[in-house]
């Protein structure tokens, strides 16, 4: 099993993550809190109340976890394609796999990465939703003192299963949308690259960026539900399950609720995934 794809997936994912985290914080807050009038209002309030650091809340854990999550995604994707088509990453430009194979390999990568991602994503969302400014004398301390304290508190209160709150919604979100992600990337690369050649850096950037946008547009409805289920049990009401969360969110806030965070998600997705694919392709090329 070639291991370079796992390492390249990790490094490229970390670069994309740092670039996209401030957008991600705004998105999570818009999806789970009703106090903001929109993106700009959320950014202004976050900055005034918590300074620039507020946008980077909850980032340390994803940086550590991206090693597992993105390397599983890209490593499983590439190795699933190898199993389906008997071609290595380098051979795939001369013998391109069918889109059905790309989709199946993407869904497989998405399904497996969702389970690795679930506990890390839960902790990230809980920390991003703490709107208290960093410890100031006299102000009430935030519920969680950091990622380890957050994980330990959830574990103590709810046991190991608590750490997988929202995992079902996450799996449903990521399995098909990662198929869409890789198919869009491959399709765009092939449109702008002569047969048998390696796509240029510009093509990889654009194809990666649009793969990010397309997959996140498809993922946003379940992303909203996932974030709400992860927050359930704290400030918000607890839901009886995924369907209950969908129905009661739509009843209370209308169908528009499923598109909360769509604009910020798309704005974030382009640079994050352009950088992710560019560094992934370059790393694999330089390792030959
Ligand atoms: C629609 N979904 C779930 C994805 N496209 N997931 C792939 C993640 C890529 C990058 N780390 C990001 O956060 O955009």
UniProtKB/TrEMBL annotation:
It holds the Pfam family Mito_carr. GO terms for molecular function: transmembrane transporter activity. The chain crosses the membrane at residues 61-84. GO terms for cellular component: mitochondrial inner membrane; mitochondrion. InterPro entries: MCP (IPR002067), MCP_dom_sf (IPR023395), MCP_transmembrane (IPR018108), Mitochondrial_Carrier (IPR050567). It is found in: Mitochondrion inner membrane. Keywords: Membrane, Mitochondrion, Mitochondrion inner membrane, Repeat, Transmembrane, Transmembrane helix, Transport. Solcar repeats lie at residues 1-83, 97-191, 199-286. The keyword Cytoplasm does not apply. It comes from the Eukaryota. PROSITE patterns: SOLCAR. It is a multi-pass membrane protein. Belongs to the mitochondrial carrier (TC 2.A.29) family. This is Solute carrier family 25 member 45. The gene is SLC25A45.
